[in-house]
Write a structure and sequence with these properties.
This protein is an alpha/beta fold. Among the domains are: 117 residues, no CATH class; 281 residues, Spore Coat Polysaccharide Biosynthesis Protein SpsA, Chain A, CATH 3.90.550.10. Helices cover 43% and strands 15% of the residues. The protein has 18 helices and 14 strands. It has a 5-stranded antiparallel β-sheet with strand order 2-1-3-4-5. The radius of gyration is 45 Å and the shape is extended.
Length: 575
Amino acid sequence: MSKVQVEPSAMANSHGQPQPPARWPLCKMRLPSLQNCIKFGIIFCLGLLLLLANQDTCINSSSQQAAVPKPMDQVDQSLQVRSRDIQYHDDCIASLSEQEEKHNQEVASLKQQIRELKRELKKHQAGGTQQVEEPQKYKEVEGGIRAQRSSDVDTHDDLSDFVRQQMAKIDMHKPLHSEYDVVPFSSLNSKLVYSLDSGLPHRPSQRPRGDRKEDLVEAVYFAIDILNKKKDNTFNSFSIDNFVDGIFKSERTIGTYYNLVFRGAQENYYQSMEILRPFSPLQKLRSQVIDTNKILVNIIIPLSGRIDKFKSFIERFKSVCLDNRMLVYLTVVYFGEEGLSEIHSVLFNMAHQYNFHSYKLIRLNLPFSRGRGLEEGVQSWDGSDVLMFFCDVDIAFTKEFLEHCRYHTVPGRTVYYPIVFSLYNPKIVHAVNDAMPDTPQLVVHQEVGFWRDFGFGMTCQYRSDFLSIKGFNMDIKGWGGEDVDLYRRYIQSDLKIIRVTDPTIFHLYHPKECQMNLTAEQYRMCVMSRAVNEASHTQLGILAFQNEVNMTLFHMGQVKHTWLGAAVQQGQDKV
């Protein structure tokens, strides 16, 4: 438009007045006529229509052709063309629908992958190691709780609802059937835990260790962090020095409940904090199929003398392993010459009776050492990797134990350390109760034996794992110590220890002598083992008051007491 503008000198006269006659001729020369505008508009519309007609190939082609009048002699041809256009239109619609369905499936697949990744991220965050020294770790999730519903929790609201349900169960009390259904609390202070579940030693108090220590320390620091964040906190700052004591207990279907007490700023002023660590719903970890029929167990026994005990062991071995055609191998490492011929005879008769030749007898002309004997038995194996069971002649086991040994031991992953049930001295058991049978009863009962939770000699492990851990320490001489040393090196390795009470393996009673040539630590361990091997607390108490008990029962018309045998027999019937 700059070319159409006129200079001011041409628009005014000498007096500064505008001159219209000079402007109109210029306008006639520049503006197009109305006829030209109409032509230009018609051409533009026709071009636009042609462009739209060329682009519409799927839908409008048939309708445009149908709108054009045709002569009568072209009706059939027109119908055929229209039929082809309709078919082409249907094909286009079907193709578009197929592509749309494919895109929808891809979108659904991507959404599913996103949900799975979110769940994996939640699991990873929930399973991460938390440092108890950092109370700030609770800022993200109040309550220190990370749980995931088994029905695919996708939102934080679902998780919060589940946690609220678990917390509500703590305050709900339901009637119990008997006093044995009550779950007792354990108490704690800043140094010790007082609990009933202390195992065989029945320690009234003990320092928390391992995961229990981490659990309690984490709970205390979490409570401190919450107390310091309270708006109505009149105390400057709570710390571990303010912790007085507390109680806690775990219920299998709810979680662990804590009630912790802290000292306030004033005397006799306390602040309690109730917290809960709820359990999440059951989650599938992994599943696997184990074919125990193909797993050979090499039973290694070190021995010196004790021929009668060995004969009894072989009888049990034949009953459990050979009669049931179990896949086993027997390695006997014998120290010395005395009794060697009898050992040969026992093994030869077994081989002849059962046609069993999967055994080996190794002789060592050395003083007896259990660690040395087991080491020689391991080194003598010349086949591929094998599952080994370190055993003694005083051990009785069932065929179920060998199955436990097989599926609890995985090469490169786990070693099996069963807690053996040790039988008491039968002479003491029979002395306080004539109703007890003469033969050892392989049952788990408090008046028959105890869990030998301080013993680590019986174990199942693969030869490759034993060699990688460097085997036994041959510098340890005399009784005990070598099995504990091996166990400690396993727990410090990357292998997982399966340590569990096993009701299918028993330690038969035998007198234990503690030699004077032992070290102070070995002698202490020997005496402790000997003390707990004899009888239960009740039986030893009856022996201590035997005269008084018998005299009282005599006046009651009973020559000897029999209530103990009835209790034991009742327990055996339950087992």
